[in-house]
Amino acid sequence: MLPTAPPTPPDRSRLLRRLAWIAAAFAFGLVVLGGVVRITGSGMGCGDHWPRCNGEWFPPLDLPTLIEIGHRWAAALVSVLVLAVALVAWRRHRDEPALRNPALLALALLVAQVLLGGVTVKLALPPWVVVAHLANAMLLLGALIWVALRAAHAGDPAEPGARHGAHGLVLATAGLGFAVILFGAQVANFNAGLVCLGFPLCNGSALPPASSLGALHWAHRALAFAFLGLAVVMVSRVGRRTDPGGQRLRRAAGMVLAATVVQIGVAAAMVLYLLPPSLRALHLLAGTLVWAALVLLVFRSGRTPVADAAADPAVGDVEPAVRRPSLAADLITLTKPRIISLLLVTTIAPMFITPAGLPTWSQIVWVLVGGYLMAGGANAINMWFDRDIDTRMSRTRLRPIPAGRVSAEFGLAFGVSLGLVAFAVFWTRVNPLSAWLALGGLLFYVFVYTIWLKRTSPQNIVIGGAAGAFPPLVGWAAMTGRLDLAAVYLFAIIFYWTPPHFWALALIKQADYARAGIPMLPVVRGEARTKYEMMVYTLMLLPLTIMPTLFGALGLFYGVAAVLLGARLLWYCVRLYRAQSITPVAWQMYRYSLVYLALLFVAMGIDRALPFGRPAPQKVIILSRPGAQVAMPTTAHVHP
Q: Are the C-beta atoms of 541 and 500 separated by less than 8 Å?
């Protein structure tokens, strides 16, 4: 008779854990609903009666009354749940202070919250009491989350004093985050939201306004930016662990940073659009998420001991050069900064050759910020989707997600968050068309190239590579607010440049692609066919780049640069076509093609800025209707 395994001991803390998570979820919703009460001005929807509404338990409901009484009934439900948590903790875990004490603390905070709610109504919503009401609600939410986390780890072996080295920094970050919430509540309740117009500066100045309300709003912003900086430092401190405890801590830190970026993006949109109610509610929702993530982070850092070098080779007595990258470094890696640098060049250069004249520094900065975030978001989502094949390729297996340093879910959330923030930046600081074009590039890259074509067709680069041709459209639209033939022409240049550029890398890495099952052209059709098609696309690209000078759209400087740069690219292509050993020449062509495109677009901007590089104004005939002609002068921006 085979021996049977001993029965698994019952999970004594399961009921407490579930009740605490349910109570925390409802408390989270109650905080947001309380914000809706304030935003809609429904706080006195029941008059000054409490706990009854207008002297009745079930009064006639208009909208303000419905919102206010809904908040009260939701508060009653949370009260029942918190009371249940406290009772279960007292009856089942009376001898476990780690579970009993935070549950009783939650009950005490609940009593304070109920009293503050009554005082708030009786005194007709005085701002200081409303702020205290929100602060106490955040503490109650934090206590419930703490109970749930403690109950989830009730069976873990105790390690007194086992804390991460960054625990103090985490506590400081959480304290600063709570202060930001308090200042934000004061800004809202003292109606100081529009005292500082513009973003990130306050009324165009980095100094606080002279008024007390202006100083309050300015202080809230300053603290928020300080919190963001501290969060970035904190993330870099906790991101070097590869053991399970370190990974959980890193995920919690990443949640804080991601929620903070979203929160600041919503705040910017809220101010720029003059405090619409929907964005104010979303601002409170994002702030509550930041607070919940901070509570989780504090808990994790307090239970993550310093790793043993024998157990975790990523720490201990190792050379700094072989230490695993921090979470901040991994997040930057997810955005593929080296690729983005070229995309930004092809975004900014077209801004110098549009009919709108030369761009301002402000326009350049906002397009750079939005462009990096949007491209970074697309790249992060690409790494999330390709995590399975990245593990089978030598050049990608050490990326943050396949290497296990960043979870797939967090990588996806990070990419989506970057895309949303980038869209908000373009929409609010540039113009809506540039926002939609940037988002279109992300969606094309993710859905058309990454998800559809990359694994199904050898023409994946030809068609899907069009995603890399969106940046000139974005730059053009950022300056003009429209698209025309010249922008499409720039799109075409990158479209025809992409196949020879990327197939050079595919020739080098064809074994990797074959192992991963990706049907790149060298894998499916062979090296000879790939080199032939690279030659064809190069021969189509070079005349295309020279035509702007021949048609008067750009001047002599650009024309000479295009000829010289193109001749060098063709020379590499011919060498590769004839080469027997392709790897050395393919590497040379791949690297030069990066330099080629960057210099080509830079030459466009320089040509536009040089007075001798632009052609003289000409006359062009535009048909306004059949039989009618209107002669209009043109300048260097005539469409080719």
A: yes
Amino acid at 82: V
Question: Reduced to 3 states, what is the DSSP secondary structure of residue 429?
Answer: helix
318 three-class SS? coil
Degrees (nearest 5) of the Cα angle 132, 138, 144?
135
* CATH code: domain of residue 440: 1.10.357.140
Give yes or no for a contact between 299 and 454, defined as CB atoms under 8 angstroms apart: no
For 216, what's the count of Cα atoms within 13 Å in the CB-facing half-sphere? 18
End-to-end CA distance of the chain: 87
498 lies in a domain?
no
Sign of CA dihedral 311, 313, 316, 318: positive
Report pLDDT digits (tens) over 364-385: 999 999 999 999 999 999 999 9
| Domain that residue 333 falls in | 324-483
Render pLDDT for 244-278 as a digit per residue (tens, 0 to 9): 666 777 778 888 888 888 888 888 888 888 888 88
337 in a domain, yes or no? yes
Distance CA 333, CA 327 (A): 10
Contact 351, 323 (CB under 8 A): no
- C-alpha 450/C-alpha 491 separation (Å) is 20
Q: Tell me, yes or no, whether 542 and 464 share the same domain.
A: no
Contact between 31 and 134 under an 8 Å Cβ cutoff? The reply is: yes
Q: In a 3-state reduction of DSSP, which class is residue 199?
A: coil
Q: What is the DSSP string of 574-623?
A: HHHHH-SSHHHHHHHHHHHHHHHHHHHHHHHHHHHH-GGGSPPPEEEEEE
Q: Are residues 189 and 336 in the same domain?
A: no
Q: Looking at the domain assignment, is residue 502 inside a domain? A: no
